[in-house]
């Protein structure tokens, strides 16, 4: 344990006592509970008001320049004034952009923001507590072991935070590596999917080609079969026609033969009748001649 001389202890105690008092006063100037009150906003209100007023003036100038540009464009005579007007508009736009950035920066850097006030109060309370304990220890034992312990504790905490940051960085690197691996796997999968899609498209093309070929072959076979059937039907029709003609010719011949037979039969019947009449005539004549001759012989 380190000890101080009485004189050094008195000097350091006086300094620490004054520092603790100033920290206490600082804590009462802007405590966290005052955040959002009108008296607290007065600290930065004037600066923000100036920025807002300046931005309003720039916006009014911008509207005037836009109206002026519309008039210059409608006239189409003074190109120099139009160019100057365009430059003025660009400058005003840049001023508005700068004013907006300044306004945002002022709000972010304002000591009245929640994060800044809380952090300041925590640091002030911590420092005030450590210095108060160190002051009491110096007054009682002329040592500052509490300060050493606090510093070592803060170093350990800082080392832990640094270790956490390193782990977080390693984790981020690991996440990046994993993301890269995922991206590579995704690219590989996309390539594989693309290749499969190409293969599917190729197979679809082949299938479509085979369908078209099969369809054409089917149509060809059907057409060939239809032609063969038509030829067979045509051939059968011709044969049927020939047979019908032959049948008709045979019927005509049969009819002719029947007619001829009938005529011959009629002729024969007629001739037979005549012959019978002649035979009868000649028989009668014979009988008469025989009878006459017999009578002549008798006489």
Automatic annotation (TrEMBL):
InterPro entries: IQCG. It is found in: Cell projection; Cytoplasm, Cytoskeleton. This is Dynein regulatory complex protein 9. Residues 48-75, 161-213, 240-274 form a coiled coil. Its main location: other. It comes from Holothuria leucospilota (Black long sea cucumber). Keywords: Cell projection, Coiled coil, Cytoplasm, Cytoskeleton. The lineage of its organism: Eukaryota, Metazoa, Echinodermata, Eleutherozoa, Echinozoa. GO terms for biological process: sperm axoneme assembly.
């Amino acid at each position: 344990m380190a000890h101080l001389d009485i004189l050094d202890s008195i000097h350091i105690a006086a300094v620490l006592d004054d520092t603790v008092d100033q920290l206490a006063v600082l804590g009462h100037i802007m405590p966290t509970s005052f955040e959002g009150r009108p008296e607290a906003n007065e600290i930065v209100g004037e600066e923000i008001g100036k920025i807002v007023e300046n931005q309003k003036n720039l916006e009014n100038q911008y509207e005037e320049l836009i109206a002026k540009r519309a008039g210059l464009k409608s006239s189409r005579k003074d190109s120099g004034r139009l160019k100057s007007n365009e430059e003025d508009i660009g400058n005003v736009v840049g001023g508005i952009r700068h004013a907006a950035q300044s306004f945002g920066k002022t709000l972010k850097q304002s000591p009245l923001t929640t994060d800044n006030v809380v952090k300041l109060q925590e640091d002030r309370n911590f420092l005030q507590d450590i210095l108060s304990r160190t002051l009491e220890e110096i007054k009682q034992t002329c040592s500052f072991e509490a300060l050493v312990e606090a510093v070592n504790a803060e170093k350990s905490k800082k080392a832990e935070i640094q270790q956490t940051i390193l782990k977080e960085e390693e984790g981020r690197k690991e996440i990046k590596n994993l993301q890269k691996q995922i991206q590579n796997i995704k690219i590989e999968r996309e390539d594989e999917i693309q290749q499969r899609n190409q293969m599917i498209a190729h197979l679809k093309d082949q299938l479509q080609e085979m369908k078209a070929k099969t369809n054409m072959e089917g149509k060809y076979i059907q057409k060939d079969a239809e032609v063969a059937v038509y030829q067979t039907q045509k051939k059968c029709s011709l044969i049927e026609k020939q047979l019908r003609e032959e049948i008709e010719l045979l019927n005509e011949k049969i009819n002719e033969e029947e007619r001829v037979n009938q005529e011959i039969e009629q002729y024969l019947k007629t001739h037979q009748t005549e012959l019978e009449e002649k035979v009868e005539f000649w028989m009668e004549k014979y009988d008469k001649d025989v009878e006459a001759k017999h009578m002549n012989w008798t006489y």
